[in-house]
Amino acid sequence: MNSALKFTGSPYTSFMHETKIKLSNGIELHVEMGGNPEHPPIMLIMGLGAQMLFWPDFFCKSLIDQGYRVIRFDNRDIGLSSKIRHAGPRLNTFKLMGRFALGLGNQGAPYNLYDMAEDAALLIEHLGLEKVSVIGASMGGMIAQILAARYPEKVSTLGLMFTSNNKPLLAPPFPKQLFSLIGRPQSSDEEGIVNHSVKVFNIIGSPGYINQIEIIQTARKLYRRSYYPAGVLQQFLAILCTGSLLPLGKQIQQPTLVVHGSRDRLLPPSHGKAVAKAITNAKFELIDGMGHDIPPHFIPHLSGLFADHFKLEH
């Protein structure tokens, strides 16, 4: 572990400590770590437009209690990490989405998921860690696949949650779910943004397991911490301009566990199955009743699955 790093207590979570890390590519990432420094590290990579606090504290604590050290961070363009100012031409998102669904390449985004995977690789290096286990959720799972394929010496085991390899002609996201994620709020004041976030949580989350008071509190906390809608769009363009990850599947040699919710309507379960099929010997676990989120109800089971999967390697 890099001993020169200065950590302070997280303002959000009693058992995590935070710091900012300037990477050699110029990006600055806001990072939190928790758990015993002697324990094997798990790096968590979050999804589209999602700050690191989307990794529930209960999930992080469950992994820590099972003998791991947990690292979570804001991806570039979100939360308290570097924002990418881009003066290039405006891209036609619908045209890009059409080409993407057919497996055709797209150009023109300020960065793509390979750049975001490089951020994660440089972060592992900067933290002075040799190898980490990685859990990536949604877009974070796409980044995790690239990380495992491109930087195999940095990743010991791989866990993927409700993600995709974007191979051509997979079942598309249900329109209601997709447009809730990339749609615009009715107003840009705090109430408008919080109401919009709550609506999104309800549309993409696990039906019957969503605590309304909790999601209002979370939405408010996230809004006050950082609100940067341009970053969400740029991350979406990064996905569209990365295209299919199917060819990477063969390069991923690490033991891989793919977990997907049966009620996920943003990325239907066929996406997770496609990922597991593309990666040699990957295990696939369908969680009955789970949507595109990590509700408390499922956390003991989920954290147990990942902790057991990673233990096989340590």
Automatic annotation (TrEMBL):
Gene Ontology MF: a single term: triacylglycerol lipase activity
SUPFAM superfamilies (UniProt xref): alpha/beta-Hydrolases
Highest taxon of the lineage: Bacteria
UniProt cross-references to InterPro entries, sorted A to Z: AB_hydrolase, AB_hydrolase_1, AB_hydrolase_fold
Example GO biological process: glycerolipid catabolic process
All residue ranges annotated as the AB hydrolase-1 domain in the record: 40-167
Protein name per its UniProtKB record: Esterase EstB
Phylogenetic classification of the source organism: Bacteria, Pseudomonadati, Pseudomonadota, Gammaproteobacteria, Moraxellales
Gene expressing this chain: estB
